[in-house]
Amino acid sequence: MSRTGTRFVLDTCVLRDDAFIEWLGPLCRNGLKTSAVSYMEHRRQLIGGPKGVRHLEDMLRRWGIEVIPFDKNSAERASDLMAERPSVCPMCNKLDWADTMIYSTDGKSSLLVTYNVSDYPVTRTVSSARTRSSGCSPGTGVRKGNLPPVHPPSMATGLFHGIIRTTGHGLTVMEVLYGFIMALIFVTAARMGILPYGDATDLVVLIVGMNLTWGAIDAVAFYLVDIFNQRRYLRLLDNTDGLDRDTRISMLMDEFGGTPLDVLDPGDERRVCSMILDMRTESRAEVVSDRRSMRDSALGCFLIVAMMTVPVVLPLLLIPDVDVALFTASAFSVTVLFFIGYHLHDYIGCSRWLSGLILTAIGWGITLVATLTGG
Prior knowledge:
By secondary structure, the protein is mostly helical. It is 63% helix and 4% strand. It is built from 16 helices and 4 strands. It has helices spanning 12-15, 18-27, 36-46, 53-63, 72-84, 97-104, 155-167, 169-192, 200-238, 245-255, 266-277, 284-307, 310-318, 322-343, 345-348, 352-372; strands at residues 7-10, 32-35, 66-68, 110-113. A 4-stranded parallel β-sheet has the order 3-2-1-4. Helix 7 crosses helix 8 and helix 7 packs across helix 12 (284-307). The longest helix has 39 residues, at 200-238. The radius of gyration is 25 Å and the shape is globular. Mean pLDDT is 76; it is low at 1-5, 88-94 and 123-157.
Protein backbone atom coordinates (compact mmCIF):
# COMPACT_ATOMS: atom_id res chain seq x y z
CA MET A 1 0.00 0.00 0.00
CA SER A 2 1.26 3.50 -0.76
CA ARG A 3 2.17 5.91 2.00
CA THR A 4 -1.09 7.71 1.41
CA GLY A 5 -3.08 4.47 1.69
CA THR A 6 -4.23 4.83 -1.91
CA ARG A 7 -3.83 2.29 -4.69
CA PHE A 8 -2.54 3.47 -8.04
CA VAL A 9 -3.70 1.95 -11.33
CA LEU A 10 -1.01 2.28 -14.01
CA ASP A 11 -2.03 2.57 -17.64
CA THR A 12 -0.02 1.12 -20.52
CA CYS A 13 2.30 4.09 -21.13
CA VAL A 14 3.20 4.31 -17.44
CA LEU A 15 3.60 0.53 -17.16
CA ARG A 16 6.31 0.54 -19.84
CA ASP A 17 8.22 3.45 -18.23
CA ASP A 18 10.83 1.51 -16.25
CA ALA A 19 12.42 4.61 -14.67
CA PHE A 20 9.10 5.94 -13.37
CA ILE A 21 8.04 2.57 -11.95
CA GLU A 22 11.47 2.20 -10.34
CA TRP A 23 10.89 5.53 -8.61
CA LEU A 24 7.23 4.94 -7.72
CA GLY A 25 7.62 1.29 -6.64
CA PRO A 26 9.39 1.89 -3.27
CA LEU A 27 6.87 4.61 -2.40
CA CYS A 28 3.84 2.43 -3.16
CA ARG A 29 5.09 -1.11 -2.64
CA ASN A 30 2.17 -3.55 -3.00
CA GLY A 31 -0.07 -0.56 -3.67
CA LEU A 32 0.27 -0.60 -7.47
CA LYS A 33 -2.21 -2.11 -9.87
CA THR A 34 -2.62 -2.36 -13.60
CA SER A 35 -5.56 -3.38 -15.72
CA ALA A 36 -5.55 -6.70 -17.53
CA VAL A 37 -6.02 -4.58 -20.65
CA SER A 38 -2.78 -2.65 -19.97
CA TYR A 39 -1.04 -5.94 -19.22
CA MET A 40 -2.25 -7.33 -22.55
CA GLU A 41 -1.15 -4.22 -24.49
CA HIS A 42 2.32 -4.04 -22.92
CA ARG A 43 2.90 -7.79 -23.17
CA ARG A 44 2.06 -7.65 -26.87
CA GLN A 45 4.60 -4.82 -27.28
CA LEU A 46 7.31 -6.90 -25.61
CA ILE A 47 6.78 -10.11 -27.58
CA GLY A 48 9.72 -10.58 -29.92
CA GLY A 49 11.49 -7.50 -28.52
CA PRO A 50 14.91 -7.35 -26.84
CA LYS A 51 13.45 -7.29 -23.30
CA GLY A 52 10.89 -10.05 -23.83
CA VAL A 53 7.80 -10.75 -21.75
CA ARG A 54 9.99 -11.95 -18.88
CA HIS A 55 10.85 -8.29 -18.22
CA LEU A 56 7.19 -7.49 -17.56
CA GLU A 57 6.69 -10.49 -15.28
CA ASP A 58 9.81 -9.62 -13.28
CA MET A 59 8.62 -6.04 -12.83
CA LEU A 60 5.16 -7.11 -11.67
CA ARG A 61 6.64 -9.57 -9.19
CA ARG A 62 9.30 -7.17 -7.88
CA TRP A 63 6.95 -4.32 -7.01
CA GLY A 64 3.90 -6.46 -6.21
CA ILE A 65 1.89 -4.95 -9.06
CA GLU A 66 -1.54 -6.59 -9.15
CA VAL A 67 -3.14 -7.30 -12.54
CA ILE A 68 -6.86 -6.54 -12.15
CA PRO A 69 -9.25 -8.62 -14.28
CA PHE A 70 -11.83 -6.90 -16.47
CA ASP A 71 -15.02 -8.38 -14.99
CA LYS A 72 -18.77 -7.80 -15.34
CA ASN A 73 -18.76 -4.76 -13.06
CA SER A 74 -15.93 -3.24 -15.08
CA ALA A 75 -17.86 -3.91 -18.28
CA GLU A 76 -20.91 -2.13 -16.84
CA ARG A 77 -18.88 0.94 -15.92
CA ALA A 78 -17.22 0.98 -19.37
CA SER A 79 -20.53 0.71 -21.24
CA ASP A 80 -22.05 3.51 -19.15
CA LEU A 81 -19.07 5.75 -19.92
CA MET A 82 -19.29 5.01 -23.63
CA ALA A 83 -22.98 5.95 -23.58
CA GLU A 84 -22.42 9.12 -21.53
CA ARG A 85 -19.18 10.36 -23.11
CA PRO A 86 -19.24 9.53 -26.84
CA SER A 87 -16.49 12.06 -27.65
CA VAL A 88 -13.32 12.34 -25.55
CA CYS A 89 -10.12 11.89 -27.56
CA PRO A 90 -9.28 15.18 -29.39
CA MET A 91 -7.35 13.28 -32.07
CA CYS A 92 -9.95 10.69 -33.12
CA ASN A 93 -13.09 12.37 -31.66
CA LYS A 94 -14.26 9.21 -29.97
CA LEU A 95 -13.91 7.29 -26.73
CA ASP A 96 -11.20 4.66 -27.17
CA TRP A 97 -12.40 1.20 -26.13
CA ALA A 98 -9.10 0.08 -24.59
CA ASP A 99 -8.69 3.33 -22.61
CA THR A 100 -12.27 3.12 -21.39
CA MET A 101 -11.75 -0.47 -20.24
CA ILE A 102 -8.55 0.52 -18.42
CA TYR A 103 -10.33 3.43 -16.74
CA SER A 104 -13.26 1.23 -15.73
CA THR A 105 -11.25 -1.69 -14.35
CA ASP A 106 -11.08 -0.66 -10.70
CA GLY A 107 -13.44 1.05 -8.31
CA LYS A 108 -13.49 4.38 -6.51
CA SER A 109 -10.64 3.62 -4.09
CA SER A 110 -7.97 3.83 -6.77
CA LEU A 111 -6.27 6.53 -8.79
CA LEU A 112 -5.44 6.19 -12.46
CA VAL A 113 -1.92 7.29 -13.45
CA THR A 114 -1.41 8.04 -17.15
CA TYR A 115 0.53 10.21 -19.58
CA ASN A 116 -2.53 10.39 -21.84
CA VAL A 117 -4.83 12.62 -19.79
CA SER A 118 -6.87 13.72 -22.81
CA ASP A 119 -7.79 10.13 -23.71
CA TYR A 120 -9.69 9.52 -20.46
CA PRO A 121 -12.89 10.93 -18.91
CA VAL A 122 -10.75 12.25 -16.02
CA THR A 123 -12.57 13.99 -13.18
CA ARG A 124 -9.47 15.67 -11.71
CA THR A 125 -5.82 16.12 -12.71
CA VAL A 126 -3.45 16.76 -9.84
CA SER A 127 0.02 16.76 -11.35
CA SER A 128 2.17 17.20 -14.40
CA ALA A 129 4.58 14.63 -15.77
CA ARG A 130 7.42 14.70 -18.23
CA THR A 131 6.82 15.03 -21.92
CA ARG A 132 7.48 11.62 -23.33
CA SER A 133 9.12 10.77 -26.63
CA SER A 134 7.19 7.51 -26.77
CA GLY A 135 4.13 9.04 -28.38
CA CYS A 136 2.24 9.48 -25.10
CA SER A 137 0.85 12.91 -24.35
CA PRO A 138 2.42 14.80 -21.43
CA GLY A 139 0.61 14.85 -18.11
CA THR A 140 -0.36 12.46 -15.35
CA GLY A 141 -4.10 12.09 -14.93
CA VAL A 142 -5.40 10.91 -11.59
CA ARG A 143 -9.03 10.36 -10.71
CA LYS A 144 -11.30 9.65 -7.75
CA GLY A 145 -9.13 10.85 -4.91
CA ASN A 146 -7.38 13.69 -3.14
CA LEU A 147 -3.61 13.22 -3.33
CA PRO A 148 -0.69 15.66 -3.39
CA PRO A 149 1.11 16.00 -6.76
CA VAL A 150 3.11 13.01 -7.97
CA HIS A 151 6.47 14.28 -9.19
CA PRO A 152 8.55 12.09 -11.52
CA PRO A 153 12.19 11.44 -10.69
CA SER A 154 14.96 13.68 -11.92
CA MET A 155 17.45 12.43 -14.51
CA ALA A 156 20.09 11.88 -11.80
CA THR A 157 17.66 9.95 -9.60
CA GLY A 158 16.53 7.90 -12.58
CA LEU A 159 20.15 7.01 -13.44
CA PHE A 160 20.91 6.08 -9.83
CA HIS A 161 17.83 3.87 -9.53
CA GLY A 162 18.49 2.43 -12.98
CA ILE A 163 21.90 1.17 -11.85
CA ILE A 164 20.38 -0.20 -8.64
CA ARG A 165 17.68 -1.98 -10.65
CA THR A 166 20.31 -3.54 -12.90
CA THR A 167 22.70 -4.74 -10.18
CA GLY A 168 20.27 -5.36 -7.32
CA HIS A 169 20.27 -3.68 -3.91
CA GLY A 170 22.62 -6.17 -2.25
CA LEU A 171 25.33 -5.85 -4.87
CA THR A 172 24.89 -2.07 -4.94
CA VAL A 173 25.57 -1.78 -1.20
CA MET A 174 28.55 -4.10 -1.49
CA GLU A 175 30.09 -2.28 -4.47
CA VAL A 176 29.49 1.17 -2.93
CA LEU A 177 31.35 0.11 0.19
CA TYR A 178 34.02 -1.63 -1.87
CA GLY A 179 34.65 1.38 -4.09
CA PHE A 180 34.68 3.92 -1.27
CA ILE A 181 36.82 1.80 1.06
CA MET A 182 39.51 1.19 -1.56
CA ALA A 183 39.68 4.89 -2.43
CA LEU A 184 39.57 6.09 1.17
CA ILE A 185 42.33 3.70 2.28
CA PHE A 186 44.75 5.69 0.10
CA VAL A 187 43.39 9.03 1.34
CA THR A 188 43.52 8.01 5.01
CA ALA A 189 46.98 6.46 4.66
CA ALA A 190 48.25 9.62 2.97
CA ARG A 191 46.79 11.83 5.75
CA MET A 192 48.41 9.63 8.43
CA GLY A 193 51.77 9.70 6.67
CA ILE A 194 51.71 5.94 6.08
CA LEU A 195 51.61 6.25 2.28
CA PRO A 196 54.42 8.28 0.68
CA TYR A 197 53.49 10.22 -2.46
CA GLY A 198 55.00 12.88 -4.71
CA ASP A 199 51.98 15.09 -5.35
CA ALA A 200 48.21 14.94 -5.72
CA THR A 201 48.52 13.48 -9.21
CA ASP A 202 50.26 10.40 -7.80
CA LEU A 203 47.34 9.82 -5.44
CA VAL A 204 44.79 10.31 -8.21
CA VAL A 205 46.54 7.74 -10.41
CA LEU A 206 46.73 5.26 -7.52
CA ILE A 207 43.06 5.67 -6.52
CA VAL A 208 41.63 5.59 -10.04
CA GLY A 209 43.89 2.73 -11.16
CA MET A 210 43.07 0.58 -8.14
CA ASN A 211 39.31 1.14 -8.30
CA LEU A 212 39.05 0.57 -12.06
CA THR A 213 41.19 -2.58 -11.86
CA TRP A 214 39.21 -4.16 -9.04
CA GLY A 215 35.93 -2.96 -10.49
CA ALA A 216 36.76 -4.80 -13.72
CA ILE A 217 37.83 -7.91 -11.78
CA ASP A 218 34.54 -7.82 -9.86
CA ALA A 219 32.51 -7.45 -13.06
CA VAL A 220 34.19 -10.39 -14.79
CA ALA A 221 33.99 -12.58 -11.68
CA PHE A 222 30.30 -11.86 -11.06
CA TYR A 223 29.40 -12.44 -14.70
CA LEU A 224 31.20 -15.79 -14.83
CA VAL A 225 29.70 -16.92 -11.50
CA ASP A 226 26.21 -16.00 -12.74
CA ILE A 227 26.75 -17.96 -15.96
CA PHE A 228 28.05 -21.01 -14.07
CA ASN A 229 25.12 -20.85 -11.63
CA GLN A 230 22.60 -20.60 -14.47
CA ARG A 231 24.05 -23.69 -16.14
CA ARG A 232 23.98 -25.60 -12.85
CA TYR A 233 20.35 -24.63 -12.19
CA LEU A 234 19.28 -25.74 -15.67
CA ARG A 235 21.07 -29.07 -15.26
CA LEU A 236 19.41 -29.58 -11.89
CA LEU A 237 15.87 -28.69 -13.01
CA ASP A 238 16.12 -30.54 -16.34
CA ASN A 239 17.76 -33.48 -14.51
CA THR A 240 20.50 -33.71 -17.11
CA ASP A 241 22.63 -35.77 -14.71
CA GLY A 242 19.87 -38.35 -14.00
CA LEU A 243 19.71 -37.79 -10.22
CA ASP A 244 16.89 -39.14 -8.05
CA ARG A 245 14.18 -36.73 -6.90
CA ASP A 246 15.16 -36.58 -3.21
CA THR A 247 18.74 -35.69 -4.10
CA ARG A 248 17.57 -32.94 -6.43
CA ILE A 249 15.22 -31.52 -3.77
CA SER A 250 18.06 -31.43 -1.23
CA MET A 251 20.36 -29.73 -3.74
CA LEU A 252 17.68 -27.19 -4.56
CA MET A 253 17.12 -26.44 -0.86
CA ASP A 254 20.83 -25.75 -0.52
CA GLU A 255 20.65 -23.32 -3.43
CA PHE A 256 17.97 -21.31 -1.63
CA GLY A 257 20.20 -20.60 1.36
CA GLY A 258 20.09 -16.92 2.25
CA THR A 259 16.75 -16.36 0.48
CA PRO A 260 13.21 -15.94 1.90
CA LEU A 261 12.75 -19.72 1.60
CA ASP A 262 15.38 -20.08 4.31
CA VAL A 263 12.95 -18.85 6.97
CA LEU A 264 10.18 -21.28 6.03
CA ASP A 265 9.42 -24.42 7.97
CA PRO A 266 11.71 -27.17 6.56
CA GLY A 267 8.71 -29.22 5.47
CA ASP A 268 7.18 -26.28 3.59
CA GLU A 269 10.55 -25.42 2.08
CA ARG A 270 10.87 -28.97 0.84
CA ARG A 271 7.37 -28.86 -0.68
CA VAL A 272 8.18 -25.61 -2.51
CA CYS A 273 11.37 -27.11 -3.93
CA SER A 274 9.46 -30.23 -4.98
CA MET A 275 6.94 -28.05 -6.83
CA ILE A 276 9.77 -26.20 -8.58
CA LEU A 277 11.14 -29.48 -9.93
CA ASP A 278 7.81 -30.03 -11.72
CA MET A 279 7.88 -26.65 -13.44
CA ARG A 280 9.14 -25.94 -16.95
CA THR A 281 12.47 -24.22 -17.46
CA GLU A 282 12.74 -21.13 -19.65
CA SER A 283 13.31 -21.19 -23.39
CA ARG A 284 16.68 -20.74 -25.04
CA ALA A 285 15.76 -17.16 -25.97
CA GLU A 286 14.96 -16.40 -22.32
CA VAL A 287 18.26 -17.96 -21.21
CA VAL A 288 20.08 -15.62 -23.60
CA SER A 289 18.01 -12.69 -22.30
CA ASP A 290 19.00 -13.60 -18.73
CA ARG A 291 22.65 -13.62 -19.74
CA ARG A 292 22.29 -10.13 -21.15
CA SER A 293 20.86 -9.08 -17.78
CA MET A 294 23.85 -10.73 -16.08
CA ARG A 295 26.18 -8.77 -18.36
CA ASP A 296 24.37 -5.53 -17.55
CA SER A 297 24.54 -6.33 -13.84
CA ALA A 298 28.30 -6.93 -14.07
CA LEU A 299 28.73 -3.67 -15.96
CA GLY A 300 26.67 -1.93 -13.27
CA CYS A 301 29.06 -3.26 -10.60
CA PHE A 302 32.01 -1.82 -12.51
CA LEU A 303 30.27 1.56 -12.93
CA ILE A 304 29.44 1.78 -9.22
CA VAL A 305 33.05 1.13 -8.17
CA ALA A 306 34.28 3.62 -10.79
CA MET A 307 31.76 6.28 -9.69
CA MET A 308 32.89 6.00 -6.07
CA THR A 309 36.26 7.49 -7.06
CA VAL A 310 34.66 10.80 -8.08
CA PRO A 311 34.02 12.26 -4.57
CA VAL A 312 37.55 11.27 -3.55
CA VAL A 313 39.45 12.35 -6.67
CA LEU A 314 37.60 15.61 -7.41
CA PRO A 315 39.03 17.58 -4.45
CA LEU A 316 42.54 16.33 -5.26
CA LEU A 317 42.21 17.66 -8.81
CA LEU A 318 40.63 21.02 -7.89
CA ILE A 319 42.32 22.07 -4.61
CA PRO A 320 46.03 23.00 -4.87
CA ASP A 321 46.81 22.44 -1.17
CA VAL A 322 47.13 18.64 -0.87
CA ASP A 323 46.41 18.55 2.86
CA VAL A 324 43.22 20.56 2.41
CA ALA A 325 42.31 18.42 -0.61
CA LEU A 326 42.71 15.21 1.40
CA PHE A 327 40.55 16.57 4.23
CA THR A 328 37.92 17.73 1.74
CA ALA A 329 37.96 14.35 -0.01
CA SER A 330 37.32 12.62 3.31
CA ALA A 331 34.48 14.98 4.24
CA PHE A 332 32.93 14.82 0.78
CA SER A 333 33.08 11.01 0.82
CA VAL A 334 31.36 10.86 4.20
CA THR A 335 28.54 13.03 2.86
CA VAL A 336 28.07 10.99 -0.34
CA LEU A 337 28.23 7.68 1.54
CA PHE A 338 25.61 8.93 4.00
CA PHE A 339 23.18 9.94 1.27
CA ILE A 340 23.62 6.67 -0.61
CA GLY A 341 22.62 4.87 2.58
CA TYR A 342 19.79 7.40 2.98
CA HIS A 343 18.38 6.43 -0.44
CA LEU A 344 18.83 2.69 0.18
CA HIS A 345 16.83 2.71 3.44
CA ASP A 346 14.19 0.33 2.01
CA TYR A 347 16.80 -2.36 1.46
CA ILE A 348 18.73 -1.76 4.68
CA GLY A 349 15.46 -1.87 6.63
CA CYS A 350 15.90 1.23 8.81
CA SER A 351 14.84 4.85 8.74
CA ARG A 352 16.54 7.05 6.14
CA TRP A 353 18.82 8.79 8.63
CA LEU A 354 19.78 5.60 10.45
CA SER A 355 20.48 3.83 7.12
CA GLY A 356 22.79 6.67 6.09
CA LEU A 357 24.63 6.58 9.41
CA ILE A 358 24.98 2.78 9.32
CA LEU A 359 26.49 2.74 5.81
CA THR A 360 28.84 5.62 6.72
CA ALA A 361 29.97 3.94 9.94
CA ILE A 362 30.59 0.61 8.21
CA GLY A 363 32.55 2.27 5.39
CA TRP A 364 34.76 4.33 7.68
CA GLY A 365 35.20 1.56 10.25
CA ILE A 366 36.53 -0.87 7.65
CA THR A 367 38.65 1.90 6.08
CA LEU A 368 40.40 2.71 9.36
CA VAL A 369 41.00 -0.93 10.24
CA ALA A 370 42.32 -1.70 6.74
CA THR A 371 44.59 1.37 6.78
CA LEU A 372 46.10 0.63 10.20
CA THR A 373 46.67 -3.05 9.35
CA GLY A 374 48.33 -2.29 6.01
CA GLY A 375 45.13 -2.99 4.02
